[in-house]
Design a protein that fits this description.
Chains A, B: Belongs to the class-II aminoacyl-tRNA synthetase family. ProS type 1 subfamily. Chains A, B: It is found in: Cytoplasm. The structure is a homodimer of 598-residue chains. The first copy, chain A, is α+β, with helices and mostly antiparallel strands and 598 residues long. Chain A has three domains: 209 residues, Bira Bifunctional Protein, Domain 2 (BirA Bifunctional Protein, domain 2, 2-Layer Sandwich), CATH 3.30.930.10; 153 residues, Alpha-Beta Complex (YbaK protein); 92 residues, Anticodon-binding domain (Rossmann fold, 3-Layer(aba) Sandwich). Chain A is built from 14 helices and 33 strands. In chain A, strands 4, 8, 9, 10, 11, 12, 13, 23 and 26 form a nine-stranded mixed sheet that branches. In chain A, a hairpin with a 2-residue loop joins β18 and β19. The longest helix of chain A has 21 residues. Chain A starts with a strand and ends with a helix. At the A-B interface, β2, β3, α2, β4 and β5 of A face β2, β3, α2, β4 and β5 of B.
Chain lengths: 598, 598
């Protein structure tokens, strides 16, 4: 049945919504695809639902091709399973929690690892039952701190989440690969270029994780890749540590006056003015050519305040080369599940041994940082700060620094952390050469969870020898509504949306113009022909609307193929309009139908 | 692609779930359609999802035929719109409420009148935009006090809810009729016999409401119908009040001793032993033939405690003929949105003027009940207690009653309420004769909301004269998951489920039996043929499972047409098994395929 605009539930808007921060949000609201009901919470109008259904169909078909079966869990779930795995706490404020009338705790599920694990535990008992991959397409909830960017980061969103269950590690590898392959097919069918990057498993736990990123300069994620094939998001990038240097024979640490040098830049300037030129190789990153002090010779000490799950607050310090900064996302991952913020003035006031602007791991009276130190504050090091590297850093005395402070001799860390910024040219950890940085949008995420959830919830099966073995799992997610927004974000111009044909809400947008009844009759008849040929047709039959408004709406709504029936109708001439290229071509009705149904 | 049981995600259970109170719950869990996650909250397994999808397809097609457009609202919604209409409070404990991380109030929506109203207000402005009917198929939440009966009354459930918008009352009538007609088509296609009964609009507000009930002795709802075409659920039944009788000339009220007569039965016995026989017509229901006192001559006074929305508690008394009881559902509707319970001992202790077992509206010192009375307790009357009827009732003195107490002379009520039980033989209010009682299950509900929501939320459009007019609305609901459970409840035997073909999870269940490889090869080939012919086939290809187990599973799962490929395979013979009738017929493969694809 041809959908006629004269009675279809669609109203386009002339004005951008005032709260729209990104193009997809702005255009999807203006073109009548979605409406906002609350921050990060949207209603779907008929056009939006149709696009979402097309994406879901692609996902379902490829899940079936991967041998996965569809199920559907509730959004409202009891606390207990999430308590057992620790996620009830770990999710922090991002979890919507509520109580029922009897005071029992419930949550709105952000993902369903626990419930899938329990389902399989309920029904399966033998390795012969495995492998199994099951999935759902379902509405999920996360109470984002700053819901923004429309559907790109909502608080209610539709996700395809799949979970695999295997008796062996090799089985998990195969199940993981099957989902990974399905994701490649899905994104190819949706016309979404992708890069598969190593990712941090984060709150999901588990051993291996990869993200599918769509590379685009407007992406919110940064990833790195080498010409040799390495790719990772910055959270998962691992630093290549230099070899340790000999400590024996290195000069003693020397404290020097460094008035008004609380920043790396002022410290470097002061050093070049007052210290001898650096000896070759004295600090980690220095090279034979070093003739002046640089930020890379300094050790920057960043004080962070962690808030642990149990609510306790702990200061830690990270020491890293002064030419690097801490990367917020890498910090978040490094210290998860604790929440991290910069230390406050109050923190410094409570810890007078930390002299702001002049902090270092050592002072003439001994170690200042580290669990065994005067402050008992844990001290983590960037992997580049290997034993034998010598540094200029704070002396924990106001207006004084120290040089020739040697790692492994004058100070030791409590461990290494990956928190420094990653830079173009940094070596890839797999030896495949220097990396370059790029931006992308996350479009899918696959995890090897391993046995974490199965162990916590007791999912075991009898193995070939009749012994109980814990099952190993994977989880695989695609944000369906997010994908829709990303496609919209990538396919538009200043006039409106331009859908790829595979997900367009209709196949053809027929526009009748003018006051000639014959044009409307021809448009109706052509629409019927196209529908009979299996196309889904939106026909703009509005009788008293100007061609300009109709064309504007067609451009805004963004169906890629538009057929205009107007002045030439009497002669059987119509216009084919390609929304993406803007090209219009006058052809006969028969040719138009042939072209559209080809 | 043929679904093969050897790797399909399905495990049938031998044991009934311990918490299953009804057949549909028991069988849907045992046959692998659903799993319980929490009270009234279920996960859907592949078979269940397939049945649900078929029901949704029927609903979507008939909504499209009725000109309704599909949208989709979030389940998680902000408090404000529900506050404006009063439903945030009115829903009481049945509403799941929660707060986000910023402390803003949210709810999990039980229905979406408010949001649909606001959507149309946002987008529409003229009577020319109307009529409009939009709907969604969406997961809803109600925190039932006693979630029970599996999917029949869950706390999370899937509903089709449609809303119509019209500029005029005549328009609403037409939109209402279009949905009503669509419901008739839907239930017919789903094979669900139905009766349309007048219903109370209840918490929805509005002017007119009808329920679709499936008549069945196991139904939870009682309805009445007359041979002349009247049908209503008991909540909506209205009593035909008799004409008032003349008061003048009736004898004076007389107090009499009635020791140990706190119940109607003991009072009637006492009256027959100690009072003169009743005069014709002295009490409402007495007839000329009355020669003995009956319960119908007595006025029963029931004390109820209302809890109002603001938390205040109020006692009220209802006077009704002693041969009737108060009907809990009618009481609930009569006093909504207050909650009603029976008065407690504490209530009586606080109101010594109410002498338990001997309560009446009058005592020798004057009125005891009614707002103008000694107790100030409001007094409601059954519609049969018209002026001029005379009654035996309590005298508010222990061990004493009064007779010849005349309504309109000795006592007056504060109004009439419809709370009495309805009995077979009661006259239908439309004059179509006496009613009979029957039981049914609610399968759909249609409401004329009128202007309640549009007024509360300010939905107005310009009318033909350019003046702002408030829009009038309807709302129309079908519980999709409830319908599924009802179909299961009505279609089963002691072996398992028996789906109607229109909603069966598969079209054919092919079972290969024996150890003969040829049987499995033939079964696979027949399955492929049937799929190629457009059928959805479940093929039980499990190699080491006995025929008995396979047949038992087939009966439990309940696909209506089963094809057995076993012993006769070598001769090209197979068995067609009709799950409903139990008939098995040996036919050739070609005949079987022809019969199944016919």
């Amino acid at each position: 049945m041809v959908t006629r605009l004269s009675n279809f539930f669609l109203r386009t808007l002339r004005e951008d919504p005032s709260d729209a921060e990104v193009t997809s949000h702005r255009l999807l609201v203006r073109a009548g695809y979605i409406r906002r009901n609350a921050p990060g919470i949207f209603a779907w109008l008929p056009l939006g639902l149709k696009v979402e259904a097309k994406i879901e169909t692609v996902v379902r078909e490829e899940m079936a091709n991967a041998g996965a079966f569809e199920v559907h869990f509730p959004a409202l779930l009891p606390r207990e399973p999430y308590e057992v795995t620790g996620r009830w706490e770990e999710y922090g404020d991002a979890l919507f929690r509520l109580q029922d009338r009897k005071g029992a705790d419930y949550l709105l599920a952000p993902t369903h690892e626990e419930m899938f694990t329990l389902l399989v535990k309920d029904l399966y008992s033998s390795y012969k039952d495995l492998p199994l991959t099951i999935y759902q397409i379902q509405d999920k909830y996360r109470d984002e701190a700053r819901p923004r960017a429309g559907l790109l980061r909502g608080r209610e969103f539709t996700m395809k989440d799949a979970y695999s269950f295997d008796a062996t590690d090799a089985g998990l590898d195969a199940s993981y690969q099957a989902q990974r392959d399905a994701y490649e097919r899905i994104f190819t069918r949706l016309g979404l270029e992708y890069v598969i990057v190593a990712a941090d498993a984060g709150a999901m736990g588990g051993s291996k994780s990869e993200e599918f990123l769509h590379p685009t300069p407007i992406g919110e994620d940064t990833f790195v890749r080498s010409a040799g094939g390495y790719a990772a998001n910055v959270e998962a990038f691992t630093t290549v540590a230099p070899d340790a240097l000999p400590i024996a024979g290195q000069p003693e640490a020397v404290i020097f006056d460094s008035p008004n040098t609380p920043t790396i830049a002022t410290l470097v300037d002061h050093s070049n003015a007052h210290l001898d030129a650096p000896a070759p190789g004295i600090a980690g990153p220095a090279t034979d050519e070093a003739t002046a002090w640089t930020a890379a010779h300094t050790l920057k000490n960043v004080v962070l305040a962690l808030t642990h799950l149990d609510g306790t607050r702990e200061l830690v310090v990270v020491g890293l080369p002064g030419d690097r900064d801490v990367d917020d996302k890498r910090v978040e991952v490094a210290f998860a599940p604790a929440e991290v913020e910069a230390a406050t003035e109050a923190d410094f006031a409570e810890n007078p041994l930390l002299v702001k602007g002049y902090i270092g791991p050592w002072s003439p009276t001994g170690a200042v940082l580290g669990e065994e130190s005067a402050t008992k504050i844990r001290y983590y090091l960037d992997p580049r700060v290997v034993d034998g590297t010598a540094w200029i850093t704070g002396a924990n005395i106001d207006q004084k620094h120290v040089h020739s402070l040697v790692a492994g001799r004058d100070f030791v860390g409590d461990g290494f952390v990956e928190v420094s910024t990653v830079r173009a040219g940094d070596p890839a950890p797999d030896g495949s050469g220097p990396v370059e940085l790029a931006r992308g949008m996350e479009i899918g995420h696959v995890f090897q969870l391993g046995r974490k959830y199965a162990e916590a919830l007791g999912l075991k099966v009898l193995d070939e020898n009749g012994k109980l073995a814990t099952v190993t799992m994977g989880s695989y997610g695609i944000g369906v509504t997010r994908i829709l927004a990303i496609i919209a974000e990538l396919n538009n111009d200043d006039k409106g949306l331009i859908w790829p044909a595979s997900v367009a809400p209709f196949d053809v947008h027929v526009v009748a113009t003018g006051r000639d009844q014959a044009a409307f009759e021809l448009a109706a008849s052509v629409s019927d022909q196209l529908e009979a040929a299996g196309l889904d047709v939106l026909y703009d039959d509005r009788p008293k609307v100007s061609p300009g408004v109709k064309f504007g709406d067609a451009e805004l709504v963004g169906i890629p193929r538009i057929l205009i029936v107007g002045r030439g109708a009497a002669e059987g001439q119509v216009e084919l309009w390609d929304r993406r290229t803007g090209e219009r071509e006058t052809v006969t009705v028969a040719d138009a139908v042939a072209a559209l149904t080809r």
